[in-house]
Amino acid sequence: MNKKHKRKASLLFAALLAAAGTAMVPSPSVQAEEAPAAQDKYQTIEKLPASADQPTKMQSKETFTWEFDPIFFDKSTGRSYYNAHTFDEERSYERTIYQDADGQWHSLEEGVSVNWDYELGAIKLWRYGFGEGLSELFSTLYNPSNEVATTGVYWMGSDDNRYGLHFMKNYYTRQDTNGYWYSSEYILLQRTEDGVVREVGRTWHRPLYYPVPNGKVLVQQYSNTAKMNELLIYDPVSGLMKHLVYASLDYYDPPSGRLLVNYNKPGRPIAVITLADGKIRPATEDDWQEFNRLLSEKEDAAPRPNASTKPPADLQPQNLPVTPIQIRDQITARATIGGKVVYLSFAFIQNGRTMIPVRELMEQAGLEVIQQKVKVNSSSFTLKGPGGTETVTAADSMMIGDRLYVGSNVLKRIGLPVQGMNWNP
Q1: What is the DSSP string of 294-361?
Q2: How far apart are CA 281 and CA 263, in angstroms?
Q3: What's the rounded Cα separation, in Å, for the pair 214 and 205?
Q4: Which of 106, 228, 390, 417 is the most exposed place for a label (fewest CB within 10 A)?
Q5: What is the CB neighbour count within 10 angstroms for residue 264?
Q6: Nearest 5°: phi and psi at 290?
């Protein structure tokens, strides 16, 4: 990697450390606590402004020339969402607005937008500056019927997205034996029905997950041993994966259980696989036309707004009433750390140890974190707890998305031992 690339990787790692919070690791030998009550599964962290009477950065009687781009039409509420954008001499502005079923216009809070998540089949809320797009771990799903958005990890495998598979990025810098530099890898995660989350593998290539009607998951991931893409079937109940074929997935049709696959080896024809009986045959022109039709129907699951709902040219989004949205965190587990109960938005077991985000420790247990330095392939920071101070290097920590994780042995030395751990099912 050239100097410019090295510096970019170093700056990215530095930015993530500064924004992260931190995380910690409980010992695998700790005693489980009493199961948390149902109300412990969520924690409200903020509420967005309720009306345009609360001034925003741009609220003004001044008239701006806005441009409007359609986002999607929500069938459940009859809302037509649009992205509004404009600029003045100093900066540009964006707002997400919508027309409700009664024809009235509203705005979401500045810095908040929505889109349709095809994999989860739900509305996803984006809060710019929160690192959600960077981490590829947390998503915030929005229910406009009660104006509640829930931030959590949503799993591919069960109908309610409570258990199954997920992946996240681990940011780091290292150099392999060929002299190439790498700045991230994907960590493959599994959550079982009892709520326990475990790391089950790693890859440099982004995996793909598709729900199968029988409750299983179709997985495309890079095989580090075969050095090519592999399709597998994952059973979230047993936790086992079954090899299907070495190929890349072009399209999957859940109702018929058919796959359109592209073999990794050149010269082999694109094929159709039927999951029910495992039969494989070359794809025909009729297959191509049918799969294209099915793909078009899938995209219609979140149709564009009708032309009749296009915002009027003189609409001023900055003066519209702002829809109140309550944002809450899912609670993955509850731990007793340093004598205090700490609610965890995410945790997972890795090689027999449980990884816990230190950001929750900073907010709930009084942990202090000070960044010391950042270099290519090296970083150090200081953790200060009630029992002392410890300098931690990259060898003792992990950067997962936009969050930092460290070992429970370090936390014990600074007076924050992990004394109990319980998972929310």
Answers
A1: HHHHHHTTSPPPPGGGPPPTT--GGGSPBPP-EEEEE--EEEEETTEEEEES--EEETTEEEBBHHHH
A2: 12
A3: 27
A4: 228
A5: 16
A6: -70, -45
On whether the CB atoms of residues 181 and 175 are closer than 8 A, the answer is yes
Among residues 137, 144, 154, 145, which one has the least CA distance to residue 115?
Answer: 144
Instruction: Give the C-alpha separation, 344 to 153, whole Å.
Output: 12
Q: How far is CA 242 from the centre of its chain?
A: 26
Q: Where are the alpha helices (DSSP H) in 21-141?
A: 132-135
Q: Which of 93, 75, 73 is nearest to 84 (CA)?
A: 93
Q: What end-to-end distance do the CA atoms of the chain give, in Å? A: 44
Kindly state the DSSP code that residue 70 receives in the 8-state scheme: E
3-state secondary structure of 66: coil
pTM over 0.85: no
Q: Name the DSSP class of 24.
A: B
Q: Split the chain (425 residues) into runs of 10 and give each run's mean pLDDT.
A: 36 34 32 45 64 48 89 93 90 93 95 87 80 71 94 88 87 60 78 91 87 88 90 87 92 89 83 92 90 76 87 95 93 92 90 82 87 58 89 74 76 88 91
Euclidean distance between CA atoms 51 and 364, whole angstroms = 31
User: Please, is 339 exposed, middle or buried when counting C-beta atoms within 10 Å of its C-beta (0-12, 13-18, 19+)?
Assistant: exposed
Task: Compute φ and ψ for 140, nearest 5 degrees.
Answer: -115, 105
